[in-house]
Amino acid sequence: MSRETVELDFFEMEKENPSKSQFQKLLKQRRTVRGIQSAISKINPQLLKTVIESGTATGSSDGKSPAIGISRDTGVLLPSKKSFSVPSTPKGNQNFVPTFPVVNPNFRPTPESPPETAPLTIFYNGTVSVFDVPRDKAEKIMKLAIDFNTKTVESTETELAVSSSEEKHLLQTLNGGLPMARRKSLLSFLEKRKERYAKFRALLSLGPAQIPVLADYLANILV
Amino acid sequence: MRNGILDRMMSFGISDEALGCVLGYIHDHRDRESVSLVCRRWYEMDSMTRKHITIALCYTTSPASLSRRFPYLESLTLKGKPRAAMFNLIPEDWGGYATPWINEIAETFRCLKSLHFRRMIVKDMDLEVLVRARGYMLQDLKLDKCSGFSTDGLLYVTRSCRSLRTLFLEESTIIEKDGEWLHELALNNTVLETLNFYLTDLTKIKVRDLELIARNSRSLLSMKVSDYEILDLVGFFHAATALNEFGGGSYGLPSGDYSAVAFPQSLHCLGLSYMEKNQMPIVFPFAHLLKKLDLLYAFLDTEDHCQLIHRCPNLEVLETRNVIGDRGLEVLASSCKKLRRLRIERGEDEHGLEDEQGVVSQRGLTALAQGCLELEYLAIYVSDITNAPLESLGTFCKNLSDFRLVLLNREEKITELPLDHGVRALLRGCQKLKRFALYLRPGGLTDVGLSYIGQYSHNVRWMLLGFVGESDAGLLDFSRGCPNLQKLEMRGCVFSEHALAVAVMQLISLRYLWVQGYKVSSTGHDLLTMARPFWNIELIPSRTVFVTDALGNDAVVEHPAHILAYYSLAHPRTDRPKTVIRLYPSSCTNS
């Protein structure tokens, strides 16, 4: 699996103050899963858009202190305060724009990754979280980050300003408000089913001979 | 009983013996309550002849009060934790301890033979005490969604209770040490009719013990087991010739030959856990006999549901997930005219893990309303909704006594909201409605709609309202109605503490309130507007809980604050954990 990455000065560390102070406000979020998620969603979307677009022109690994890495195969945003260098592949500077989930709503995962869910990895201030998110939800999250600032002029400091019910329920699983609770018995059943699925996914990697039987089984497990 | 008749009866001087005979035919607890209010003598007669009591919340009275009033009780049902505990919303140590009750039972209730604990904490020691005192007489023991005991406790029961007809452990959390309890049951019991350890994690069960039970207890009617491989139960099915109901097990082998499984001839009620498309045909030969079908934990898609349901014209009870889809509901509506109870639970939200056709909307619900006229219980999770199917339910389903609708968050845009008119039509049309739940989203029901609920829910005793209404005005309007509302649960509503408190004072029959998700203040002071004698107010402030799920992933879960308030004639409880706070005015002793 090729890992093509690009570094972008996402938070425009080299530029003026406004984005910097905004970023620092984000750092004050609690280091909980919810805190991280809400922080990411408050990232200035205009910034994100312009920076990514400018970043593609400049390419990668050019010695600037990069603040973001994007992994193409999984659609990952990697903001980081410290500079780190993620080497690009020998394939060099290609036009990455069509593969960015943020700017390209038709982002397709690589053939090797399963179409149902893909890991969404968030690196934030020294902590790493991985979420298994379906493709369309991942796109929604990215789109929301872009659209967010068009609805609210400035991102607020201490609360997540959810202006419409649309955003509210989209973010429902993320911002923790009052998510719809599941019955214990069904939760346990759905988790068991996921486990079965994961087991057989692992078994699938065993060899081509086993695949037809297992694929057939998988097809049943998926419903 | 009107005054005219009363006078005649009193003047005839009915003897106690005669009265006792008559009371033997009066079972409904509301009729019994009326009897007990007539005069002192009738109160005493009722007390001595009452056979069954259900205590909906174990803290509303004390064991001593119960035994003083109903010393000859034969059957007792006690419930502990709030219903929200079934959704992991209540701390495990909230309360609901069986110990004081069992101690009282052991000491005074000489006639008790039937005991049902629901959502309570029962310890092995409690079971030992119970068995020592009542074991020889115990006929029915139900530990329903309970926790706190192990298989050692069960061993006390099965070793000594030879008269046991019912042993029900469904969905209890049991510490498993071995399978001895089942072995003892197999050896000592010949009158067992119902054995249920469905949805428990018991794995040390020996199949030969199940077979022995089937052979020894010729009247075995109902068996529901944990995840035991079905192919290993062939011998059991062969022996259990009178079996009426079977659930649980696991159709776990994809290449297994399940056609070898011969179900007993009299089987009318079946649960198909983990069954897949390929295995489904084994049910076809007797599908037309089925009255009850449980597909909640099956691996079937929408088409499979259609194929199966189509073959079950005598179906009266169906439980499944929303993978049944609108198409499945249409098949149900046209094939199953005798359907009385339908529960459609929430399946997987993530795409790709459940059939993409598996959405239930106004289309399926309308078909159902027009096709299944005998419906008495309907609980349904929908992805989309309009007013029309609710109006249809009000028009066609006149026997509906329990209706629960939950609107999922899968779709951003719902075809038609608010549901004010539909809800009004449903409540006006379904006069027998006693239990009602409506769980929507902001915009799902306006304040006007909420006032309709107050106005038209004359006979409703229990309600769950989620994300309804727009403001305090709606709640206050609502609470001027609902004359028979005894138990109210609310979630995600925008009401202030003051409005909640005023509403409680206005709901004339209210004796139990549970709320999560409201305008929380830092002190909860406004809630004291509802402070009054015998009204206990408990608060579970918001908590942050660290959990690890079954796959080993850690997560942080935020639990918003809860209010729990209830009438009680007992002293305020002393077994509250640190997470539960009691709210009362400083001037009030409330003893």
From TrEMBL, chain A:
It holds the Pfam family tify. Coiled coil: none annotated. Its main location: nucleus. One of its GO terms (biological process) is regulation of jasmonic acid mediated signaling pathway. The keyword Metal-binding does not apply. GO terms for cellular component: nucleus. Residues 113-147 form the Tify domain. The keyword Nucleus applies. It comes from the Eukaryota. Keywords: Jasmonic acid signaling pathway, Nucleus. It is found in: Nucleus. InterPro entries: CCT_CS, TIFY/JAZ, Tify_dom. PANTHER family: PROTEIN TIFY 4A-RELATED-RELATED, PROTEIN TIFY 9. Belongs to the TIFY/JAZ family. Repressor of jasmonate responses. The jas domain is required for interaction with COI1. This is Protein TIFY. It comes from Tetracentron sinense (Spur-leaf).
TrEMBL record, chain B:
Residues 71-117 form the Transport inhibitor response domain. Signal peptide: none annotated. Residues 13-52 form the COI1 F-box domain. It comes from Tetracentron sinense. It holds the Pfam family F-box_5. This is Coronatine-insensitive protein 1. InterPro entries: COI1_F-box, LRR_dom_sf, Transp_inhibit.
